[in-house]
Amino acid sequence: MITNTELEYKGDLYPTKIVAFEHEVDSVCFHTDNSVILKVTVLRDSLIRFRFTTKGYFSNDFSYAIDKSHSHGYNFLEVSEVEDYYQIKTSKVQCRIQKADMRLSIFDLDENVILEDELGFHWEESYEYGGNIVKMSKASKEGECFYGLGDKATQLNLKGKRLENFATDQYAFQKDQEPLYKVVPFYIGLQNKQSYGIFFDNTFRTYFDFCHERRNVTSYWAEGGEMNYYFIYGPQMQDVVTTYTDLTGKPELPPLWALGYHQCKWSYYPESNLKEVAAKFRELRIPCDALYLDIDYMEGFRCFTWNKEYFPDPKRMVAELAEDGFKTVVIIDPGIKIDKEYSVYKEALKNDYFCKRADGPYMKGKVWPGECNFPDYTNPAVREWWAGLFKELISEIGVKGVWNDMNEPAVMEVPNKTFPMDVRHDYDGNPCSHRKAHNIYGTQMARATYHGVKRFAYPKRPFVITRSAYAGAQRYTSSWTGDNVATWEHLWIANIQVQRMSISGMGFTGSDIGGFAEQPSGELYARWIQLGVFHPFCRTHSSGDHGDQEPWAFDEEVIDITRKFVNLRYQLLPYLYTMFWQYIEEGIPMLKPLVYYDQEDIQTHYRNDEFVFGNQILVCPILEPNSLGRRMYIPRGQWYNYWTNEEVKGGKEIWVDCKFDQIPLFVKAGAVIPKYPVQQYVGELEFDELTLDVYYKEGKEKSVVYEDAQDGYDYKKGRYSFQSFQTIGKEKELIIQLHKEGKYDTNYSKYKINLVGLPFKVKEIEIDNEIVVFDQKAFESKGYLVVDKEFTELHVIGE
To answer: What sign does the dihedral 62-64-69-75 (CA atoms) show?
Structure first.
């Protein structure tokens, strides 16, 4: 008997009519007559999950991205049925599911459409892998804009772009190149002054099309898995980002030193070379808190070993660096060298911890040590074992941080740069192929690393950085944008990537300052430093193959500019630390693109360059050579030029002059900006004054300062200081009100208050209803006041 086994190509398949539904507590399930099930779960009034299956049943509900430690709850839920559709209503939105074809639409309470299906959910049978390609298409309104999706090397506004999510080692990537190292399948839509978010929680290779193929259609699809997405309603972009960050989790506070300046190179060796770098920083008085060791510190690139020729006594070396304020950070890659004499390899082999091919043998690939096997970090037992490997590095040698690289995972000398897709993974008890596990491999490595560093660094806080990440990785690790290039284009890319990562939940991010590949000019390096000090993670890193890239590799002018801007970062550490505290407490991004800052102003929707650092400092880098100024957009409100103290009214584009040792910086009127004295490393100095730069504004403005012991976990027991300042500006008076919370007593006893932009001459000072002795001449010559930190209300009264 001859059978024709050629399979019919069915193209796109769609749900048919709904034949049944059931409502149980926070979820409603809809069933079609062709076995599609849609499960709608209301997590909050503004957060709804949509989960589809074409099998007639759901697989185990498991996600690495969702923060399971966080509970949700809604205020109101009503499910009703009318002739053509079912309606699910909360106190913020209403969702309608069409009976005929399961297409859905979401409205606000005033019946304005927020988001609606075009073709909606559909799928294509994929016989090659025995599953489905799952697809979703949404109608896009005129003027709609799109943001987010992690560290894409393209315009901040994604309208008209098609993008791919598949963690890939992209050495020396270019503008608009796809895909890159990280996978954050979350975007923000903005139309008609309303923002919403979509998080497509699917770890397979995914794609997003923002009106690229069809002008008024946005779509996203995956090469397997479920159509499983979360809808987040704003209407402000701030609400969307905060809810998404809350959903996928927030980190704990890093030690303050992790927010200092870091220096890295591939590679610093031997020990004498590393010591020379450390000594030069101190000699030139350029602050630095951390030095990094790349793969050459290892013995034959074997993880958790030391090359004793280069570093004969690592413990002594690390301790000597620490005496001078330097923390040592070391690289650890996932590839474990196949070597029967190597203890880490033997342990993993004995316990069957390596990833396997579908037909049984261990996955083998070439990376820096040569042929390697790779731990399956999706197995909880492997993560626990991996965490334990950090004991010697952290608790015995004294290393303070760990840097995970090559964890996309990257494999050399193979066409697709990574594992074969048939490699098997445990996936926390949900066995799968590498097609599903690829995008979360790096995150699970970083997770295991984080738990190891945290365990052995205790009672200090851990510091981990990763190259590859999936949504939710911010719970465990910081990140950087990968192997960039020393070009002006890459300076532009770095600016946008870090802004985008900030509104994509992964705020603790930076770029390789100066570029990893090739050699920057002194001008490019200086301009990159001027941007990099305003990124949450601040590190110079280079391949070393193209020349030196320490600040002193350039001329005296560049050294001076580097010192000036790194000094400024160290002065702003209390401001930066407060930004981080607001990020972990409330999910507020540390960097705010202008569209996030003021979505109602249509002029912000396509701006790339300017961003708000924290809540009150506007930054605009110089991105072109030979520039002593640039045009930039000042957002609405009143701002002061940081360098000249000139007041500027926003809501317009202006030309800003700036010398080579400046970039355009503006401070919001009414702001109170806290500053520490310049230190060569965090904790170097004991000081008795906190400087407060107070910028006058007619009206009210609130500022906050968060402080604690700068490391350790006492802050979780209430031992922190949270200072809330309110400035109230009047025609001839400035009032500063101070409210304090927390049990931590700061080391300083005084505030040094710089008053900027006062429109009157100061006649007297009143503190807590008492007029104080005030030397007007001394004030006018110095420009500041010194007051006791215990005041609650200070009045500056004009003539």
So the answer is: negative
